[in-house]
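During data preparation, a discrete fold description was generated, and the record follows.
___
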Amino acid sequence: MTLPFDALAIPPAALEQGGVEIVRAAIVEGGLHISVRRAFDDAQAWGMVLADIARHVARIHAMETGASEDLTLDRIRNMLDAELDSPTDPGTTTAIS
């Protein structure tokens, strides 16, 4: 039996104004699975996207747990640096259309 996929809601601005989904991530049996669109001519723009995502995650985590947003963001940054320096699982990447 296949379990249903628990998808997030589409952001209200995207529903109202349109847009392009650039990343979708799911945890399946403990592993990360993603779909990514290249989206930018300058790869540096991904740094801004990832920083924005980290800030949103820290804010949500703080609101839901009472933890400090700054401390949470520091923890995210530390693990991001560690994973970039020495990945626990480099994974595989293929282009799928």
